[in-house]
Amino acid sequence: MAKAENKTQVTKIEPKDFVAAVEHPKRRADAEVLLDFFARVTGLKAQMWGPSIIGYGRYHYKYDSGREGESLLTGFSPRKGNLVFYIMPGYRAEEMQEMLGRLGKHKIGKSCLYVNKLDDIDMDVLEEIVLDGLADMRKKYQTWDE
User: Fold this and answer.
1) Residue 69 forms beta bridges with which residues?
2) pLDDT tens per residue across span 94-114
3) Which of 29, 50, 59, 94 could lock 143 by a disulfide, CB 3.0 to 4.6 Å apart?
4) 120 touches 104 (CB < 8 A)
5) Domains in the chain: ranges and CATH
């Protein structure tokens, strides 16, 4: 099967410009903090993935079906309703459950962590979660640090 086009591709938009245009003042302020946080924690350059995701690094995936593509290693999006963190391995591991228990107020999806505002969570625990997710991705996939 040919390499499938991922709907969410890297764009030429500058993440700082995207964040500066976020309408909600608290969401914009939190996103500015997160730009610095992710750069420091990951050591990777921020890139826009699609119109609203700020991603760090990339990895190559291939499903059992044969579909393959590339996506971000980790990142975030300052959406209208909440902040979304992309922790690509998901939240199944026992260690991740322990960290989530210490994080603060949040909700989770398969690979998404939803937070209303940064004041609701412990940033040191978020750092542990991001680093754990990156380590897991680098063990399982071919990755690029861009």
Assistant:
1) 61
2) 778 899 999 999 999 888 999
3) 59
4) yes
5) 15-141 (3.90.1150.200)
The backbone torsions φ and ψ at residue 126, rounded to the nearest 5 degrees and listed phi first, read -60, -40
| Burial of 21: CB neighbours in 10 Å, binned 0-12, 13-18, 19+ | exposed
- Output the six-digit token pair for 2: 């040919």
- The residues that bridge with 58 in the sheet, in sequence order, are 72, 144
Max mean pLDDT among 28-42, 100-114, 131-145 falls in 28-42
Helices (H), 23-85: 25-42
| pLDDT band (50, 70, 90) for residue 1 | very low
Q: Residue 10 class from Cβ within 10 Å (0-12 exposed, 13-18 middle, 19+ buried)?
A: middle
The answer to whether the pTM exceeds 0.85 is yes
95: CB partners within 8 A, 6+ apart: 132
Separation of alpha carbons 143 and 43, rounded Å: 14
